[in-house]
Amino acid sequence: MDRGLPVTRERWSPDTPILGRLSEEGSEGISASRLRAMVGRFFTLTASLIGDRNPAFAEKLRQVSPHWMRPTHATHALNGGAELTTVRDNLRHASISTTSIYLHVDDARRSQQLSKVFSTRK
User: Peptide bond preceding 17: is omega within 30 degrees of 0, i.e. cis?
Assistant: First the structure.
């Protein structure tokens, strides 16, 4: 079965809704500007809730955009054991090398393993 992934410029339609509708009314999905506003409002409200306890983090949250969630998703998915090709397809990357920049956990794991090997040698 061909799932049609990854989505290339030739196969992507700008008219395709980003997300499905939120209610039963209307047939259109959420527009990019509406999604951006919703994400922005969520993070602004979250920032106001934690602002007294952690002002620096609250300020970071006020700067968040929907795009900020893509690398976060990719890093967490890969750290959690998702295959690189699965994350590539989910992010709609054309190249696996683009997705591989999110393999931070492999660098850390490799460093820990080599440190362990060489620290036990005499």
Answer: no
- Cα torsion for 20, 22, 24, 30, to the nearest 10°? -50
**36-81 residue pLDDT tens:** 888 889 999 999 999 999 999 999 999 888 788 888 889 889 888 8
Task: Give the CB-side neighbour count of residue 7, counting CA atoms within 13 A.
Answer: 8
Indicate the helix (H) or strand (E) that contains 99: helix 96-99
For the stretch 4-43, pLDDT in tens is: 556 666 666 666 665 666 555 655 667 777 778 888 899 9
SS3 category, 72:
helix
Calpha distance 5→92 (Å, rounded): 7
- Domain positions in the chain are 1-64, 66-122
Q: How far apart are CA 108 and CA 96, in angstroms?
A: 20
How far apart are the C-alpha atoms of 35 and 60, rounded to whole Å? 19
